Amino acid sequence: MIPDTTAAAAPSGADDRPTTETPLVGIIMGSKSDLKIMSAAAEVCRQFGVPYEITLVSPHRTPHRMVEYAESARKRGLRVLIAGGGGAAHLPGMVAAFTILPVIGVPINSTTSIQGLDSVLSMIQMPAGVPVATVGIDSAANAAVLAIQMLAIGNARLADALEKYRTALKDRVMRTIEELRKGGFQDDV
Known about the structure:
Helix content: 40-55%
Largest sheet: 6 strands, mixed
Radius of gyration: 18 Å
Structural class: alpha/beta
């Protein structure tokens, strides 16, 4: 079992203390510097009331921990993994090699990366049979939305929450269009 350095998040509306609910989403990263980006995934999970855990799992500095994390994830109740990595970004692909759970890769534009492009390529160019779903560079929030969409396939509460989320996104755009019209902007739609 993975050492107890992970933290589970409380459902939306609760405080930030760990909950006893079994995490459904595992959010992992190779180093503490990735936390600035990956915390967005945690925030989205928190907003949707999806229990998650977040921890460091370095494929280079703690390879045995990475293998143990990936191999035990499903048994521990996780359903989706979000793995962020910068530079050559080995974490998402290596974790995908050790679990049957879906792995969503978040390429990170780190100080050692080539504007995040090396990270993207290492995630999207996986060999047949070991996929990593990959979102845009630094797009941890989108990774969490994708994870929630996967969970919503069998969860009516999450499906409803996603519908409301999409409606809120549309409403925000429509309000902006109206504000632009009031300011003299004309659209041709």
